[in-house]
Amino acid sequence: MKRCVVLLFFACIVNLYAQNYQQIDGVIAVVGSSMIKYSDLETTYLQSRSSAESTSLTKCSIFENMLLNKLMLHQAAVDSMEVTEEEIDNELSQRINYMVQVYGSQQRLEKQMNKTMPQIREYFHDVIKENLLISQAQNKIVGDISITPKEVSDYFQNIPKDSLPQIEEQYTLSQVVILPTMSKEDKEQVKQKLNEIRDRILKGAKFTTLASLYSDDESSAKKGGELGFFTRGMMVSEFESMAFSMQPGEISPVFETKYGYHIIQMIERQGDRVNCRHILLMPKVSATQLYEAKVRLDSIKTLIDSKEISFEDAIIKYSEDDSKINGGLIINRNNASAVFSLDALNATIGNVDNVDFASMKQDDYTYPIEFRGELSNAYRLIKIKKKVEAHQVNLADDFDRIQSLALNQKRNDIIHAWAEKTIKRTYIRIDDKYKDCKFTLDWNK
User: Fold this and answer.
1) Mind giving me the DSSP string for 50-116?
2) What is the reported pLDDT for 25?
3) Summary mean pLDDT of the chain
4) 239 touches 251 (CB < 8 A)
């Protein structure tokens, strides 16, 4: 059976690898008017080697995926397909939100990439645009392809029985989160300190110097507090409201967001974009406040233990985490899924390595566990919402998984047939060093 893997949506982590990879210029392929550089292939290959699901991909197979994407991008141009800035911004926000989940917070992502959030958005803009065009072209090729239960069964029956994978134990988890409470005195002290910094700036001290010395936003502090250009929808609402109300050179009063307290220095406005500096001071959580959060969560656990309230109702009534809007579901940062393997539990959920999830049953829940939240340490109860025992893939237990694989194969076969015809009428040039690759398509035609 012909196999044609399509890599459509950019892998965010590929570009993070690119930050530390020595880019090497040199065009290794041209498809229509699009080029593939050696550095693009090397960066994508390095990223694939770090993914457990992609270690079987060879450099040649990755190269063919890139050729196929460029062929669809060429088709998008032939068909005069377009994407709007709004579509790009929406997709960009989703992808960045995923990366923030992977790294745990916006600050960690900015630190990893050594860029502010607006700079990250600008960095990925053209990549997103290209992938949206490729997606449009693919959708036109495969249309609304569906698959019947019989096709799923036939696909499964054609898989050699000794090739059926073993599915490891999997967990779906929910949580009740209690955050430490900041006292009014703590907040007032931070506001007072930031007002003192603001007064120094108004009296002639350099904003950039004080941002570097005092700001809790480590990423922008390295740049004197500068954030780079951003538009509405890219920052939290309180920050945007202040920034877009200011004139160049103006210093804002102290104001609060969920991250802490800020002052802004407006640098420049360009249409609907602004560039500014900021200083962020975050109230620090004391050991006493953290202990009080644990005591509160202990009390909630007692209510759940005594059946006075269900775990699910406790999430709605007490949880102080954004996950409460989806029933307290914990998302796996590595794949944006709500399903965890046992290894992934220990690798991605902080401070649970001593919890014996394997011996717990479905609907069991933990004792209060301390973890590192986005703004400070906090406590949570974790419940095993669903537990699936280890087993070999079968139609009864894994129909959705097999259905997805069968549908992807059907789509790939259709794309493969389309590509065979389109290659013949498209200008394609491949560097001689890659002509010995065992491609599934005859790109040398």
Assistant:
1) T-TTTTT--HHHHHHHHHHHHHHHHHHHHTT----HHHHHHHHHHHHHHHHHHHSSHHHHHHHHTS-
2) 65
3) 87
4) no
CA distance 413 to 5: 10
Question: Distance of alpha carbon 375 from its chain centroid, rounded?
Answer: 18
C-alpha–C-alpha distance, residues 186 and 182, integer Å: 6
Residue 329's DSSP bridge partners are 174
- Give which of 235, 241, 228, 232 is closest to 85, Cα–Cα: 232
DSSP summary character for residue 271: T
CA distance linking residue 331 with residue 337, whole number of Å: 6
What span, in angstroms and rounded, lies between the C-alpha atoms of 355 and 349?
A: 11
With 80 as the cut, is the pLDDT of residue 279 above it? yes
CA dihedral 68, 73, 75, 78 (to 10 degrees): -160
Distance CA 385, CA 323 (A): 14
Per the listing, tokens 């006292």 go with 183
First to last CA, the chain: 22
In angstroms, rounded to a whole number, what is the distance separating the alpha carbons of residues 414 and 141? 8
Distance CA 82, CA 59 (A): 31
Closest CA to 12 of 140, 101, 143: 101
Inform me whether the pLDDT recorded for 102 exceeds 90: no
Is the Cβ–Cβ distance between 173 and 330 less than 8 Å? yes
Q: Which positions ≥6 away from 404 have C-beta within 8 Å?
A: none
Q: Does 1 score more than 60 pLDDT? A: no
Three-state secondary-structure class, residue 414: helix
Contact 395, 174 (CB under 8 A): no
pLDDT of residue 30: 95
Is the pTM of the predicted complex or chain greater than 0.85?
no
> Exposed, middle or buried by CB within 10 Å (0-12, 13-18, 19+), for 395?
middle
Asked if residue 24 lies in contact with residue 39, where contact means CB atoms within 8 angstroms, the answer is yes
Beta-carbon-side half-sphere exposure of residue 226 (alpha carbons within 13 Å): 14
373-388 confidence digits (pLDDT tens) = 767 889 999 999 999 8
φ and ψ of 166, to 5 deg = -90, 125
3-class SS of residue 255: strand
Output DSSP code: residue 235: S
Inter-residue contact 101 to 333 (CB < 8 Å): yes
Give CA–CA dist 327/336, Å, rounded: 16
